[in-house]
């Protein structure tokens, strides 16, 4: 199983080219990288990174302002300072997971809440970007489809780096998983950028398949 | 083998998700999805979780569509627990999509789950209208009742059928006549019978109490709490049983009476007759007691067992139920019960009837005897006895075949004294009236000798029973038929017909006029009668219509005499002594006083002066005079003495000073062309009066307005008519005309100025005038409103559409002249012409006469500038045009669709747009194909997915080999 260039992908490529040559190029490089069979880990890195970058540049290319960047580093630094000011240890306990409630100072609690809020805002901003890219409307960030596309987009950083300091190293994802998540992203992009008559034809196919019944022995 | 739904794979769900980011695509998906296996995966993704408050108002201020609800309703039967749980979250939502989903789901859920949604359904019924599928809501109640969920069923039925008080009506009338039903009356009346079997299944007789309560709450409050025999609610419905006298003047109340009666009958059939009568009869409400009588009557008729008879007998013996307002119901019970009563019971009933107990008190009887305008104090004892006798007769007569011997003898005595009463059990009885009736038929009259006929007409007199019996008018109409079919028979009566009555004279004239068309030629006696009638004075004031009497004045017979003369003129050719005689006969009527000669404004009730002229004597006489003038001049060159005489007579009616009646002016306008044919100078010499539509004097102007407006509608466009009317047309297209008030002599769908514009455009088309003609220049000048110009240009296109289907081919050059006219105006746009002149240009494409390659660019100009008023008119021509010019046609459809992406305007071309777009997609021109695809994209993004689908279907239809 491998990712291939199809009519739908060519249509999306053509539609992206209308928006900006760089957008089309990012998408083309991504599919080219992912369509190698067998696909290497570095080719997955290239493919995932190009799609990530596509989501990063499309809002600007389509005339939408990007949400303000969240200063996650500042929040983490504040928490570190409050933490160490209370002389709380940074190393994990050697006796295993902590099961008891740990009292902390108000300063640490406030710094922790600020960090969590930043995390939440960062997630919201990421969904807003996805909403802009796949619907053209930032207000659609809570749309279930946008949330699902956002989930697919969230997989990309993990695939785009051979090593990620922020999480334990993981084996490369199965090809089926890559194809599934890429498909979610591509259909959302096509819905927004490809001729709507073509998307409607795709939807009609989905509906026909969804309403299919199988015959079973009575 | 059996079908089963296929559970979607993770890939299948993921494949759909990316397509559902767009709201229109998502709506399309949920509108089409049937598979219940998709419910759980979609639910996990959060598709049904949108908060209620987010569904209330969208950016446009309306409720937010929730197509997911439709899917939930469709899979409710397969996934009842999940769907119920999801829809209960919407219980308080006011979103119509959510509410519809609740109703639809409740209709297909198993009862145990539907019961949970019943409070929501009740709330929806109580607060919604319009879109509610009321038969479906009754089905929910049926479903719940069948499953034993009576409480849930009851609350839905109450929401549907319990009447509400109408506070406004109470405040207006002071009496709470307040049967206000929550749902549409049609559905109330048609659906309430479906509730009857459900109500009958409620415990004990609670269903009867419920519907009876609804009925009472519907009644007038004035009688509340009191057993009032004259309760108004009892008189609106004469009979509780079905009867032709029940006119359903209050349909919901009638339906409630039927429902209460039918629930009571069902419960009685189930062995609860005693409890039913106990409830109906002891509630102290007269209407329910009347229903009790009818129920008892039907139950006894089916089951005359001692127990049933005993219950029913108690009603029969209640003197209050013998009140006249319950009489039809009491009679039905008595007729069922008397034949099965034992001797003792029968004797008791005879005693009741013979007692005074059920009759009204003495003072009431005195008032009845004195009615309508007598004095009760001067009524004698004998008078009161007669009233009493007649009341007993009213009771006994409808029971004649079931009365015990003693009362049967009394009935014979009463009949002998007072005769038979029609419909004695009803306080009033309504019969329909269809027109005057005759004492005999035309056939019988025609079979008489002249002597017999004269004697019959002389001696027959109406009975005077106003409107219901044979009348003079009825007989006159039969005589008219005889005069048509056997004119000589009636003609033999001519010398004395005037003495037999004006209506018979009128009838004879009308009949003879019709007979002339079939070859009859009146003899001298008939014309002598005409002469006699014409000379008769008509000074009396007209009386109101009375079919029993002859016409009060001679003018109706005189008008018929004019019809007879006109009929004779039509069959009399050339100059002949006959025409001279006819002129001498009608001449006196040309000076008839009807109508008044003084100028008056048109009456508000009038249909217009032209219509008035048909009913008034002097205008009609002048009309016939012009007919004589035209007939007598046919083929002649010089004017004859008769011509001179008639023209001189007409001269006495020209202008408001001579004869101010506008109906006379209408006749002159109608005849001006005929007069011109006889003597053009007569018309031209009087132009200043005939055509003075710019006169300062409003009366003189109105008179001329009527002449011109009738003439414009009476004559076809041609050289002669232009010669006559041109001076008037030149005045109509001036600023002065626009500033003055005008009178239309013959109102129709086009105003006089529009009618004038039609003549001018047709005059150009037929070669009577050319483009440079002053009249055309004037028509399209500043003085004429652009609406008149656009209407006239559009009307010309409309006429082409009709001429095309006519028997004659187009005259050579006419198409070219028409196109030249349009191109002339188009070339002047921005330089004196306005594009709005083309707002009705759509008639030209629609006519099917002109080439699309000619009209497409013009139509595009109209559409691009949004000046067209082509609602619903362009579909067919655009489809035809797409066959020869797909690209330009697509451009117009594109413009129309995108400027009209409002549902209420899309119907204009939505039917034809798919054909046009598909034709463009098949074009060999890649630019046209690209434009079509671009349009499809924009349509899809605007939510017109059905239109996009229709294009796909059209393409498939074309790619499928036929045969």
Outline of this structure?
The complex is a heterodimer of chains A (218) and B (963). Chain A has helices at residues 7-19, 21-34, 41-61, 72-85, 106-135, 144-160, 175-193, 196-210; one strand at residues 213-216.
Give descriptors for this structure.
heterodimer, A: 218 residues, mainly alpha, 8 helices, 2% strand, elongated, B: 963 residues, 52 helices, flat
Structure description:
- The complex is a heterodimer of chains A (218) and B (963).
- Chain A is mostly helical.
- Helices cover 66% and strands 2% of the residues of chain A.
- Chain A is built from eight helices and one strand, in the order ααααααααβ.
- Chain A is elongated, with a radius of gyration of 22 Å.
- The model of chain A has no long low-confidence stretch (mean pLDDT 88).
- Chain B is built from 52 helices and one strand.
- Chain B starts with a strand and ends with a helix.
- The chains are: A mainly alpha (218), B mainly alpha (963).
- Chain A binds chain B through residues 134-135, 140, 143-149, 180-181, 183-192, 195-197, 199-204, 206-207, 209-218, and chain B through 1-6, 8, 10-12, 14-22, 25-26, 28-29, 32-35, 38, 45-47, 49, 933-934, 936-941, 945, 948-949, 951-952.
- β1 (213-216) of chain A pairs antiparallel with β1 of chain B.
Q: Residue ranges of chain A: pLDDT <50 for 5 or more in a row? A: none
Output the helix-strand order of chain A. Answer: HHHHHHHHE
- Average pLDDT of chain B, to the nearest integer? 89
Sheet-strand content of chain B, in percent, reads: under 5%
Instruction: Give the uncertain stretches of chain B in residue-range form.
Output: 174-178, 221-235
Q: Which percent range fits the helix content of chain A? A: 55-70%
Number of strands of chain A: 1
The biggest sheet of chain A amounts to:
none
Which value, in Å, is the CA radius of gyration of chain B?
40 Å
Structural category of chain B: mainly alpha
**Structural class category of chain A:** mainly alpha
The total count of strands of chain B amounts to 1
Helix content of chain B: 55-70%
């Amino acid at each position: 199983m491998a990712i291939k260039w199809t009519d739908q992908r060519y249509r999306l490529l053509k539609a992206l080219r209308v928006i900006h040559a760089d957008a089309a190029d990012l998408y083309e490089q991504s599919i080219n990288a992912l369509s190698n069979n067998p696909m290497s880990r570095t080719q997955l890195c290239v493919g995932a990174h190009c799609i990530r970058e596509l989501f990063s540049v499309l809002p600007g290319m389509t005339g939408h302002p990007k949400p303000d960047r969240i200063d996650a580093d500042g929040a983490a630094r504040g928490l570190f300072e409050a933490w160490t000011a209370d002389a709380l240890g940074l190393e994990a306990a050697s006796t295993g997971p902590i099961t008891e409630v740990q009292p902390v100072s108000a300063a640490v609690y406030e710094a922790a809440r600020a960090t969590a809020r930043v995390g939440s805002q960062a997630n919201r901003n990421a969904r807003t970007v996805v909403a802009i890219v796949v619907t053209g409307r930032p207000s659609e960030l809570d749309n279930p489809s946008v949330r699902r596309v956002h989930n697919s987009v969230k997989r990309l950083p993990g695939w785009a780096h051979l090593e990620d300091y922020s999480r334990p190293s993981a084996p490369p994802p199965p090809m089926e998983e890559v194809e599934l998540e890429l498909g979610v992203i591509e259909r959302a992009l096509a819905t927004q950028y490809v001729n709507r008559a073509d998307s409607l034809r795709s939807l009609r196919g989905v509906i026909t398949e969804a309403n299919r019944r199988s015959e079973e022995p009575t | 083998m059996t079908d089963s739904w296929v559970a979607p794979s993770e890939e299948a769900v993921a494949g759909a998700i990316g397509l559902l980011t767009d709201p229109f695509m998502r709506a399309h998906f949920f509108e089409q999805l049937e598979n219940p296996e998709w419910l759980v995966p979609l639910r996990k993704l959060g598709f049904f979780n949108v908060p209620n408050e987010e569904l209330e108002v969208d950016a446009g201020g309306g409720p937010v569509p929730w197509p997911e609800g439709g899917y939930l309703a469709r899979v409710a039967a397969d996934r009842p627990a999940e769907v119920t749980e999801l829809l209960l979250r919407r219980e308080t939502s006011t979103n119509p999509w959510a509410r519809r989903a609740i109703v639809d789901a409740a209709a297909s859920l198993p009862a145990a789950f539907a019961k949970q949604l019943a409070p929501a359904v009740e709330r929806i019924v109580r607060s919604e209208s319009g879109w509610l599928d009321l038969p479906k809501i009754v089905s929910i109640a049926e479903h719940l009742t069948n499953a034993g969920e009576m409480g849930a069923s009851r609350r839905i039925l109450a929401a549907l059928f319990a009447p509400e008080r109408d506070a406004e009506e109470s405040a207006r009338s002071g009496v709470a006549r307040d049967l206000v039903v929550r749902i549409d009356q049609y559905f109330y009346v048609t659906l309430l019978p479906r509730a009857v079997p459900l109500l009958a299944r409620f415990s004990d007789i609670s269903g009867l109490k419920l519907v009876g309560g609804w009925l009472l709450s519907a009644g007038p409050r004035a009688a509340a709490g009191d057993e009032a025999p004259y309760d108004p609610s009892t008189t609106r419905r004469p009979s509780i049983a079905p009867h032709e006298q029940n006119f359903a003047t209050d349909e919901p109340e009638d339906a409630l009476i039927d429902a209460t009666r039918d629930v009571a009958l069902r419960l009685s059939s189930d062995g609860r007759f005693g409890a039913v009568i106990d409830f109906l009869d002891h509630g102290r409400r007269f209407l329910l007691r009347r229903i009790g009588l009818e129920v008892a009557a039907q139950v006894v008729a089916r089951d005359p067992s001692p127990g049933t008879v005993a219950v029913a007998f108690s009603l029969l013996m209640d003197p209050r139920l013998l009140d006249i307002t319950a009489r039809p119901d009491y009679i039905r019970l008595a007729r069922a019960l008397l034949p099965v009563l034992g001797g003792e019971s029968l004797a008791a009933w005879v005693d009741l009837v013979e007692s005074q107990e059920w009759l009204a008190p003495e003072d009431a009887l005195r008032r009845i005897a004195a009615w309508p305008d007598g004095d009760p104090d001067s009524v004698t004892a004998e008078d009161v006895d007669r009233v009493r006798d007649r009341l007993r007769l009213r009771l006994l007569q409808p029971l004649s075949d079931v009365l015990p011997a003693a009362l049967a003898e009394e009935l014979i005595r009463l009949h002998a004294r007072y005769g038979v009463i029609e419909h004695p059990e009803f306080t009033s009885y309504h019969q329909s009236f269809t027109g005057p009736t005759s004492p005999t038929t035309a056939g019988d009259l025609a079979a008489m000798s002249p002597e017999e006929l004269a004697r019959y007409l002389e001696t027959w007199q109406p009975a005077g029973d106003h409107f219901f019996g044979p009348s003079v008018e009825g007989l006159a109409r039969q005589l008219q038929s005889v005069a048509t079919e056997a004119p000589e028979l009636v003609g033999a009566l001519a010398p004395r017909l005037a003495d037999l009555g004006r209506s018979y004279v009128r009838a004879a004239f009308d009949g003879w006029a019709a007979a002339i068309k079939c070859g009859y030629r009146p003899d001298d006696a008939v014309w002598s009668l005409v002469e006699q009638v014409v000379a008769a004075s008509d000074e009396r004031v007209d009386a109101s219509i009375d079919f029993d009497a002859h016409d009060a004045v001679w003018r109706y017979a005189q008008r018929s005499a004019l019809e007879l003369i006109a009929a004779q003129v039509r069959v009399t050719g050339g100059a002949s002594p006959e025409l001279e005689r006819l002129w001498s006969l009608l001449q006196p009527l040309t000076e008839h006083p009807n109508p008044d000669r003084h100028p008056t404004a048109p009456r508000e009730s009038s249909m217009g002066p032209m219509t008035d002229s048909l009913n008034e004597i002097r205008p009609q006489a002048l009309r016939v005079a012009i007919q004589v003038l035209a007939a007598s001049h046919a083929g002649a060159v010089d004017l004859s003495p008769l011509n001179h005489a008639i023209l001189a007579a007409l001269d006495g009616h020209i202008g408001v000073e001579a004869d101010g009646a506008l109906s006379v002016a209408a006749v002159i306008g109608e005849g001006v062309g005929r007069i011109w044919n006889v003597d053009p100078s007569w018309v031209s010499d009087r132009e200043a009066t005939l055509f003075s539509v710019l006169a300062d004097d409003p009366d003189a102007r109105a008179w001329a307005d009527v002449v011109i407006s009738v003439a414009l509608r009476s004559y076809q466009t041609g050289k002669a008519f232009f010669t006559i009317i041109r001076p008037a047309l030149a005045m109509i297209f001036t600023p002065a005309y626009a500033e003055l008030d005008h009178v239309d002599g013959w109102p129709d769908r086009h105003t006089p100025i529009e009618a004038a514009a039609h003549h001018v455009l047709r005059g150009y088309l037929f070669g009577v005038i050319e483009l440079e003609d002053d009249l055309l220049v004037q028509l399209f000048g500043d003085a004429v409103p652009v609406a008149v110009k656009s209407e006239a240009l559009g009307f010309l296109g409309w006429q082409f559409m009709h001429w095309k289907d006519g028997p004659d081919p187009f005259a050579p050059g006419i198409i070219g002249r028409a196109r030249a006219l349009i191109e002339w105006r188009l070339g002047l746009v921005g330089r004196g012409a306005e594009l709005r002149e083309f707002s009705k240009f759509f008639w030209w494409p629609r006519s099917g006469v002109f080439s699309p390659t000619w009209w497409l660019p013009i139509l595009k100009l109209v559409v691009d500038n949004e000046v067209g008023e082509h609602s619903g008119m362009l579909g067919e021509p655009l489809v035809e045009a797409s066959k020869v010019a797909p690209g330009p046609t697509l451009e117009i459809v594109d413009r129309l669709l995108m400027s009209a992406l409002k549902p209420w305007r899309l119907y204009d071309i939505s039917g034809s747009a798919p054909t046009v777009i598909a034709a463009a997609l098949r074009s060999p021109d890649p630019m046209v194909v690209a434009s079509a695809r671009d349009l499809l994209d924009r349509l899809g993004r605007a939510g017109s997915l059905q239109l996009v689908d229709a294009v796909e279907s059209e393409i498939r239809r074309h790619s499928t080999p036929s045969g």
